[in-house]
Amino acid sequence: MNITINATTRKDQGKGASRRLRHNEQIPAIIYGAGKEPDTITLNIHEITHLLENEETYTSILDLTIDKKTQPVIIKDLQRHPAKNLVTHVDFLRIDMNKEIVTNIPLHFMGEEDNEAMRLGAILNQFVTAIEVSCLPANLPNSIEVDISKLGMGDHISLTGINMPEGVTIIALTHGDIEAHDQSVVSVQEPKLMSEEAQVVDTETEEGATEGGDDKAEDTSGS
Length: 223
Hints:
One of its GO terms (cellular component) is cytosolic large ribosomal subunit. GO terms for molecular function: 5S rRNA binding; structural constituent of ribosome. The protein is of the alpha+beta class. The chain folds into 2 domains: 3-94, CATH 2.40.240.10; 104-189, RNA Polymerase Alpha Subunit, Chain A, domain 2, CATH 2.170.120.20. The protein is 24% helix and 38% strand. The protein is built from 5 helices and 13 strands. It has helices spanning 15-23, 45-51, 116-119, 178-181, 194-222; strands spanning 3-9, 26-33, 36-44, 62-66, 69-80, 87-94, 101-110, 123-126, 130-135, 144-147, 156-158, 169-170, 184-189. It has a 6-stranded mixed beta barrel. Strands 10-7-9-12 form a 4-stranded mixed β-sheet, with no helix packed on it. Strands 8-13-11 form a 3-stranded antiparallel β-sheet, with no helix packed on it.
């Protein structure tokens, strides 16, 4: 899916210029990388807000059109208003389609409804929700699916257990000592037994009763 973002060249800079842009329903942005000088640009606030409602915008190669010239980019950073949650600035990274890029890709855990252990009350623990990967831009996935349907009670999936798309490499597993960096991604945990919870309640009740009895004894002796 091709996603196009329209922009115009921006010459004015500074806080005052940025406030004027936002007043006119525009926001400042910058594009850098690929061995070229950074370019300051302007985006339409409504267009970029609408595009960001689609999760794939964050992990896709975007067609950024500046004054009718189009170039491939990815979103590198976003700034938002702390109270209004409005986008206030966007950083774009230029992409060379012939060179690998490094970026974060979200994990989508699939098969929860088919997991027998979870149907019996097991708890799913997600330790990692996104992983840093390296690949050519043409191989960049929007997300990576992790099948949890077969996980039993106490089972887990680590980084090496993820089925990666062809041409996509997990950065954490390229540091030499794979075992040291092969962290758990997701696990299925046994829920607390009802009897254990009941024991806790009984203990608290007994302690409360003892405290109440001591108070009563003290009152009687003092009368």
